[in-house]
Recover the amino acids of this structure.
């Protein structure tokens, strides 16, 4: 039996009211009581459309007969991980592979004037078709969704109550999806605080922690570049008839593009810092830099990348299982 008092006093846990119920009366003691630490613990990171790679990772592990004993998920990692433990991975994969650019547009529920461009209700409706009414207690294995409290910046670990509510909170990208009200707290995407939640698995005292980092090949090594600002160029005041500079980099990303790219950088830098301080036993790093965060219609490529990267490391996973058994 885990010593929950010692867990709650750890630095990464102490300042957050983690493991509180998503619905109903708040709990002061987590209702989830992991027992036997069998199988590997997966820390599934955030990454929007790149997160379909998690499906490939789980498929490869299942094929190899490697048991998953626990999952901690952030953002789309929480979505895929929750569906897997609920026995709904087939339905999620079918949905992901069916997405096209046109169908994606049909799923958008623009919510002008609210707290996000998209309300998220259409995606919630799809989730309800398969996991409506399910709670964490129905899963049978430890599962934690990581979210962030927008008013305080606290890292929130959700491990009891409504599964759909917790997953929605974990992938509620600020400015895109509306924040989720959960048991008195206003929650947003957990990638703001813990993009690859290895620390959650460590708090549960898991013996073998495997992290899936979806941003590893996006920027390469962090760099500091000394650069000249040049001359001030105001595009609207450009001389009429002047040919555009062919060497000028395109800066018009649009509001959503700027938000997404900025969030990309935040996730990457936070991931590097946190994984350096609390590394997993093994890191899976699918090559996904060519897939944009909003390109959900490229599920086949992402799933294949996750599957192949996991297959390549299966011998190492098996070796670690033997060593750490």
């Amino acid at each position: 039996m885990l010593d929950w008092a010692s867990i709650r006093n750890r630095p990464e846990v102490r300042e957050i009211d983690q493991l509180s119920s998503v619905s109903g009366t708040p709990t002061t003691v987590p209702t989830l009581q992991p027992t036997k630490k069998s199988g590997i613990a997966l820390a599934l990171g955030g990454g929007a459309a790149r997160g379909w790679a998690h499906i490939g990772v789980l498929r490869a592990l299942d094929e190899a007969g490697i048991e998953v004993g626990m999952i901690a998920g952030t953002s789309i990692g929480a979505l895929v991980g929750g569906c897997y433990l609920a026995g709904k991975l087939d339905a999620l994969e079918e949905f992901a592979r069916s997405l096209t650019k046109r169908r994606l547009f049909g799923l958008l529920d623009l919510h002008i004037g609210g707290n996000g461009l998209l309300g998220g209700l259409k995606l919630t409706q799809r989730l309800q078709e398969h996991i409506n009414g399910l709670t964490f207690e129905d899963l049978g294995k430890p599962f934690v969704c990581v979210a962030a409290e927008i008013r305080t910046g606290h890292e929130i670990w959700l491990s009891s109550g409504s599964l759909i509510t917790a997953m929605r909170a974990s992938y509620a990208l600020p400015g895109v999806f509306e924040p989720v009200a959960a048991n008195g707290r206003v929650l947003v995407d957990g990638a703001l605080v813990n993009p690859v939640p290895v620390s959650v698995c460590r708090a549960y005292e898991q013996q073998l922690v495997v992290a899936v980092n979806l941003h590893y090949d996006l920027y390469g090594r962090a760099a500091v570049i000394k650069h000249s600002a040049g001359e001030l160029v105001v595009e609207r005041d450009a001389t009429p008839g002047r040919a555009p500079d062919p060497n000028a980099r395109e800066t018009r990303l649009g509001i959503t593009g700027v938000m997404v790219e900025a969030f990309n950088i935040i996730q990457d830098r936070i991931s590097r810092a946190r994984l350096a301080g609390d590394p997993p036993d093994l890191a899976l790093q699918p090559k996904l830099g060519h897939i944009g965060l909003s390109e959900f219609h490229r599920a086949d490529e992402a799933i294949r990348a996750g599957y192949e990267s996991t297959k390549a490391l299966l011998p190492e996973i098996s070796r670690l299982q033997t060593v750490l058994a």
Notes: The first strand starts at residue 40 and ends at 44. Residues 116 and 175 are 5 Å apart (CA to CA). The chain has eleven helices and ten strands. Residues 1-5, 11-36, 115-121 have pLDDT under 50 and may be disordered.
